[in-house]
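Suppose a colleague, Dr. K., hands you the sequence of a protein chain of 98 amino acids and asks what its three-dimensional shape might be. Before reaching for any lab equipment, you can write down a predicted structure in token form. Begin with the sequence itself:
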Amino acid sequence: MIAQVCKRPDGVWRIVTKREAYQHNHHISDDIYGSHPGIRQVPAESPLMPGIEMLVEAEAGTSSMYNFIRENSNHRVTMDDVRNLIERMRKRGKFSMK
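The predicted structure, expressed as tokens, is then:
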């Protein structure tokens, strides 16, 4: 999009759109979309959360939680995503810090 600042005859300044282009400036695909953090992460209201909470309570390893999420959903989490999820759950006070 190209925008230009213009002064109207009555002296008021405004921004005018000169050209709009509704397209991506890069290649898009399902893989690229699925790699974005907001798409990868497991939402708090996910049906997986009770299972994840049980794994956290049982002090299962991060790799076990990673495998559980990947095998039971279409969330393409990374190990860092799993660590961050555990940390968020602990900060909410659901689990003690050990």
